[in-house]
Each structure stands twice: as structure tokens, then as C-alpha cells.
Design a protein that fits this description.
single chain, two-stranded antiparallel sheet, elongated
């Protein structure tokens, strides 16, 4: 069974037997994981097994603690990851120290970072000290700067102190505080811009102790010194500390930046901008209030108009209702007169009917006793 399977199943005793076999090759790459035994032991946090393997007498070609993991095509994996890089990324302090003692290179790179830079996020002083004692270069820089820049970014105050060479933790190289990142920011620029108050006094004392006047005068990509950055950010306490250090080291405290401003002028400029911004904010607030007032007035006017329209509609409805009421009353008043009119017509009609009836009765043959049939025929002929 392979070492990878033994470690995965937790069979440490069998794994130890395999590692201690005389013919076991610690530099061989596992065909499935593409990692060496050192990589696998670090990954599984098997510090004791790792120590046993490192203490084992080396084969003729020797144990190679700096072999990188491989990819599927048996090429060096990208980014390059040595067992030491794996230990630092995992925060495995014991494994990292064992590897360093076995000759692991503290200056190999992982994703354009050296081992000190990887150590910045771990926040374990023992690792920083071990790397420095084994020759780690604190002045190697990438886009983010040196290891000291990385310690500042990670707020790793213990590593920061170790790199500055505090008593008992001597750095392996002379520290170059003028090392800069891609924005040409030194650690002093970065500490001031981040307002790391825990680092700024320490840096200033280190600058004064080692007479690093050039660091106080160094300009970043924007043409600002650390004093200008403090002034721009309105950090008056930091401005005072830096200007005092400038006077002690013979650096002009009123040095101009690339825009032609001294720190004091920059403070006034920033204050002026702040006042202008506050004024603009106040004016915007007033305009907003006026807009709201106008909207309220417009809304009230619309509501009044709607009320008037509603009142007009009500007035029209009342007028129509009143007109209908008057017409109804008029009809009620005319009703008796119409009744009398119709009665009068009825009386006249009845009278006429009666008159016609009387006239008709006067010519009735029953009342004419002397008339004869011949006269009737004569009458008819006529």
C-alpha cells in the first residue's frame, strides 16, 4: 500500500514501517498525488513521521527537501510548492522548523513570494526567527514590497519587530528599509498610510538610530514623502513625529512634493478641500430641502385643485338635484289644474252628447203619429 493511502486511512504504524525501510525513496513522487513523501507528511500534519524520515540516514543521492510538487504531466506544478512552502501555508510550525533544520531553502519562491512573505500571515514568531537564522532574505521584493511590507499588511507586529532586528532576533541580512513596492512606497509610507500606530514610532526610532535620513525624504509614485501622506490624511500627531525626526537628521521638514506642496501647505489645502466639500454637502442639503418643499407645494396645489374639482362636481350634482326637485314640485302644482281641465272637457263632451240626443229624439217616428208610409217613401226619395 502506498504512503498516501496509509496516511489517508490513519495507519501511522504501517506508514512509519514503510518510511523506515532501507529501500524507501523519500524523493520519489507518488504517481497519483504527484507529491513526495515530505509533501504528504506535511499535508497530513504528521510532524513526528516527518521528523523520523528526516532523521533517517539518507540514501546515496541524499534527501532533497526542496523538491517541488509535480503536475499530471510530471512537470513542476505552478505555483512551485516545496514541502517548506506547504508547511508555511498550512501554518505547520513544527514541520517548517524540521524542514529548515534538514536544509530546506528559505529563499525558494511560491507564487512570487519567498518564505518570509508566506510567514507574514502565519503570525508565529518562531518561524520568522528560524527563517532569518537559516538565511532568509528580508530584502527580496515583489509587487507588494518586501517581507516587512507583507508584515505591515498582515498586521504581524511580532514579525515586524523580528525583521527590524530587535534584541535577541538578529536578521541574517542588513535590512534595507528603502526597499519599495510597485507604488514606490517604502515601509514608512505604508505604515503611515495604513495608520499603523503600533509600527510608526518603532520605525521612526529605527530611522533615527540608524541615521536613515533618505527614508524620510523618499517619495512614492505620487511624489509624496511619508510626511505628506500623514498631512494629507490629517494625522497631525504623525506629522509632528516625522517632522521632529526630519529636524534631528537634517532633512528639510518643509520639503515639497511633486505637486509643489509642503506638508503644512498640504494640510491647509486638505482643510480647504474639506471645507469646500462640507459646504457643497450643505448646499446639496439645502437644495434637497428646497426640492422637497417645492414638491410638497406642488402636491398641495394638486390636492387643492382636486378638492375644487370635487366641490364643483358636488355643486353640479346639488344643482341638478334642486332642478329636478323644482320640476317635480311644478308638476305637483299643475296636477290639480290639469284634472280640472280634463273634467271641464268631460263636462262639455257630456253636454254635447246630451244635446245631440235630444235633437235626435225629436225626429223619432214613434212620436210622429200622422205620418204615413207614402210620405216616408217620398221623404226617402227626397
Amino acid at each position: 500500500m502506498s504512503l498516501a493511502k496509509l496516511l489517508k486511512t490513519g495507519n501511522e504504524d504501517k506508514a512509519r514501517e514503510l518510511l523506515l525501510q532501507p529501500d524507501f525513496d523519500p524523493n520519489a513522487v507518488d504517481p497519483k498525488t504527484r507529491q513526495t513523501a515530505l509533501h504528504l507528511l506535511v499535508k497530513e500534519a504528521q510532524s513526528e513521521l516527518l521528523r523520523d524520515l528526516l532523521d533517517k540516514p539518507s540514501p546515496e543521492e541524499g534527501l532533497q527537501p526542496n523538491l517541488e510538487a509535480r503536475d499530471a504531466e510530471d512537470k513542476v506544478a505552478s505555483p512551485q510548492q516545496t514541502p517548506l512552502a506547504s508547511a508555511l501555508l498550512l501554518g505547520n510550525e513544527d514541520a517548517a522548523v524540521h524542514l529548515l533544520n534538514a536544509g530546506a531553502d528559505p529563499n525558494t519562491l511560491f507564487d512570487r513570494q519567498n518564505m518570509l512573505m508566506l510567514c507574514a500571515s502565519v503570525k508565529k514568531p518562531r518561524l520568522t526567527n528560524a527563517l532569518l537564522l537559516r538565511g532568509a532574505d528580508p530584502n527580496f521584493t515583489n509587487k507588494a514590497g518586501s517581507a516587512l511590507h507583507h508584515a505591515l499588511e498582515a498586521e504581524n507586529d511580532q514579525m515586524f519587530a523580528s525583521l527590524l532586528g530587535h534584541p535577541g532576533v538578529p536578521p541574517a541580512h542588513q535590512l534595507d528599509l528603502l526597499a519599495a513596492n510597485a507604488e514606490r512606497e517604502t515601509v514608512l509610507h505604508l505604515a503611515v498610510s495604513k495608520y499603523h500606530i503600533w509600527a510608526i514610532p518603532t520605525l521612526i526610532e529605527h530611522i533615527k538610530e540608524h541615521k536613515l535620513a533618505g527614508l524620510l525624504a523618499a517619495k512614492d509614485k505620487q511624489g509624496n514623502t511619508a510626511v505628506h501622506i500623514a498631512a494629507k490624511n490629517m494625522r497631525s500627531n504623525v506629522v509632528s513625529l516625522l517632522q521632529k525626526a526630519c529636524l534631528e537628521l537634517g532633512v528639510a521638514p518643509d520639503l515639497k512634493n511633486d505637486q509643489g506642496f509642503t506638508p503644512d501647505e498640504l494640510v491647509r489645502e486638505v482643510e480647504s478641500q474639506k471645507r469646500a466639500e462640507l459646504k457643497k454637502i450643505e448646499e446639496d442639503k439645502q437644495q434637497e430641502k428646497m426640492k422637497k418643499a417645492q414638491l410638497r407645494a406642488q402636491k398641495q396645489a394638486e390636492e387643492q385643485k382636486l378638492h375644487k374639482e370635487a366641490d364643483s362636481q358636488k355643486d353640479l350634482a346639488r344643482l341638478k338635484k334642486k332642478r329636478e326637485e323644482l320640476e317635480r314640485q311644478e308638476q305637483q302644482k299643475r296636477a290639480p289644474l290639469m284634472l280640472l281641465f280634463y273634467l271641464a272637457i268631460a263636462v262639455v263632451v257630456l253636454y254635447l252628447v246630451l244635446r245631440i240626443g235630444v235633437a235626435t229624439g225629436a225626429t223619432n217616428p214613434a212620436n210622429q203619429k200622422d205620418i204615413n208610409l207614402s210620405d216616408l217613401h217620398s221623404h226617402l226619395d227626397d
